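Our consortium's second objective concerns turning raw sequence data into structural hypotheses that experimental partners can test. To show how far this objective has progressed, the report includes one record in full. It was chosen at random from the queue rather than selected for favorable results. The single chain below, 329 residues long, was entered without modification.
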Amino acid sequence: MRRPSSRLLTAAGAAIGTAAALVAATLSTGLPATAGPLTRPKDSGAQELGDPVYGVCRGTNPRCYHDWGNFDPAKGYKILVYSRTAGPRHANLGPALGAGLNPPLADANVAQKALVKMGQDNGFGVDWTEDVAQLASPSTLFRYNAVVFMSTTRDTLDDAAQTSLRQYMRGGGGFVGIHNAFGTEYNWPWYEGLLGGANFYDHGPAQPGTVQTVDRRDASTAGLPGRWDFADEWYNLVPFPSQVRFLASVDEKTLAKGVAGNMNHPGHGSLHPVAWCQYYDGGRAWLTTLGHDAKAFTDDGSAFAGARQFQSLVLNGIESAMGKKPFCR
């Protein structure tokens, strides 16, 4: 992957010290460490916790969520999987998809097909697209309890889709970012905040490692062991996630090939997060950097260690983001 712009890295460097300081406070209190005084907007009656970096209500406090009645559980649950790439394309996505909603999927479209089957097996609907026009209207997105960015790449949204996604989240929508969702929309600060105030910087060699389940109380990590083997690219992040609930991390000591990528990031030491959650600008956001290998989505764990744990993490993360299960608790 190409290096982010120098302007972004300069801004990231300025913010990372603040982000690191936020982590300890977030872990100890579960509340945004920089939250200002509560205010009550006249138009909604919702209490807001302001964020000085991204200018939105974000963190682990459910008062940041806008429960404005846009989703009716009685109508069931449904997600939209978006996998458009405007740069390098992960092999597990297969060939680019045709225009429109739910175009034909080839056998090589492994990740998309796996999420479709996940929905079939667990009682929620799944639509899929790589057509940015399908994201151009908030009213269209409100048909879905969550929007899943599956290894999207670079500038994958136009102006209309950016506005639509932002309004959708402000109306209580759910967002799930998987793997290279972190290599997307680098120069859009709101999206960086949606990811937890984080971006992809680089990664070391794809290699086995041990995932540590940091928070086993959350719905997305329920039933996972404290430690489990897995193989991935182990993304290094700049900025470092802040004001989030960390759910899982990789034990860097188990990475035999080290953490340094082609831009020589030193890694994150004792807390190298791979999954977390937060409320953001009215909605729910559940994130994981995992998901590089196609087998992680399809194997039963007999040939790809940790595949079943990864699939459980993603399934429960999706179901929590769309409100089918408790979120970020």
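The partners drew two points from this record. Confidence is low (pLDDT under 50) at residues 1-48. The chain is about 25% helix and 20% strand. Both points have been shared with the crystallography group to help prioritize constructs.
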